[in-house]
């Protein structure tokens, strides 16, 4: 075991076979963990410190090696025998020290379980499906062994401290929450950048999750937009230590994005597997990536206005740069940077990036209607579509979500408006989902900060084949979450005037929902802080052209009021919007 970020996460060496406790107890990781645990107890002046008084040296410092020997013996013998052996200067009575050690043991065991735990195994990539399955099963089995080992160690020591066997055994998650298979690849020179250290970093080619997966990050909101720094050269200003970084190749829609994630933020990297399709070595080895993200670079590389991240372009590739800072330790920054790169590239390709959801909705045996919902974070896009599932079954509603949060529009050769998605999953607020939904998918979900405001869950929903295909668009609605429904403001209204429609979409008004640092009524150009704001002039030209062609081709444009930003309507608002949308579809001639 190795590589511990003692305050937040641990990276376990999956190359080791976990067959006995000695490797754990004698490892550097165990030493760092127990030392840090004791240090934190000292900061809090905790009563648990009584347990380590016998393990202080002449300078009153914690004697790790003596404590290591004590735990090794305690795993094999009852506490009273260890105390009577005379090996340790324990000045407490057996009963008193039993209570003290029990308190310490439970605290340290919970400390281990609350740390974010990852296992990484170096394994040569083999394209053969049978070989890949075998290697994945081997890694999963090794993690199962670690889990059993930790549980057995805890139970042995618990029994030897108390002298009592358990009447209830709980098979608590005690191994790695996520395991990775990684390999080092030889890249041809024509796809390499100027920074050769990037190609010494291990690439993740498979991941295994042990649900329920719950992560706690140091931040829970995102702020600002990523500025594009023209003419800035940065690639040759840093070196990537292969022991501290992991490369995660993903596909944002049809674009290849390589994410280099520092081990301090590995929980954010793990979240990518539920949100984006993992690219294979066959897909990333022989072509330059469309974009690259670095998450966790040294802060000395960043100017004052870049501390939340920035974008540069070198050698024809867009790079998203994010510092190693607690302020941006939030999955929203990871997702936002990937989507910003995606949208910048799509604007340069004369496509129209859309911050919105897209679904194919079918009533009974009727022809499906393809509907795009456009709006910024917290507007109620995903919530409205999810609410359709809660409508009476006799309505016969069938919803296929093809885009959850971000996509692109383009016109095909037949001049039809088509949509392409980016993500295979959804990153949504727990508070805004229908009660119980997230927990019904707990076996597949990744929970982020479920104990605080803006708690989030990452849920896989679609296949890559679905989101990457071009799908015709029938209707586009702007999502209004700030106006209450009344006689003058109906749940759904259609725009008759093209200029009015374009003005509403361009203004991007919404009531902030605590998903960002914004409060109250806010405006964001085209409800899209992911590239559209940075390239506003280019985006405006594309948007004007697209809206004009939409009208010519009969694509209807309107607004849906979700009331999600109005207190008291967090659940009922999207439900009413969903009912109205279904009724609207029923009445389509």
General description of the model:
With 589 residues, this protein is an alpha/beta fold. The chain folds into 3 domains: 2-162, no CATH class; 184-348, no CATH class; 352-424 and 461-586, Phosphoenolpyruvate Carboxykinase, domain 3, CATH 3.90.228. The protein contains 15 helices and 26 strands. Strands 13, 14, 15, 16, 17, 21, 22, 23 and 26 form a 9-stranded mixed sheet that branches. A 6-stranded mixed sheet has the order 9-7-8-10-12-11, with helices on one face. β11 and β12 (317-323) form a beta hairpin. α5 (94-114) packs antiparallel against α6 and α10 (381-388) packs across α15 (572-586). The model is unreliable at 1-6 (pLDDT under 50). It comes from Eubacterium maltosivorans. This is Phosphoenolpyruvate carboxykinase.
What's the architecture of the largest domain, going by CATH?
Answer: Alpha-Beta Complex
The best one-word shape is globular
Low-confidence stretches: 1-6
Give average pLDDT, whole number: 92
Rg (C-alpha, Å):
27 Å
Share of residues in strands: 15-25%
Q: How many individual domains?
A: 3
Which percent range fits the helix content? 25-40%
Reading off the top of the CATH hierarchy, the class of the largest domain is best stated as Alpha Beta
Quaternary status of these chains?
Answer: single chain
Number of E-type strands? 26
Question: What is the CATH T-level topology of the largest domain?
Answer: Phosphoenolpyruvate Carboxykinase, domain 3
Distance between the termini: 65 Å
From the helix content, strand content and strand pairing, which structural class follows?
alpha/beta
> What can be said about the biggest beta sheet?
9 strands, mixed
Number of helices: 15
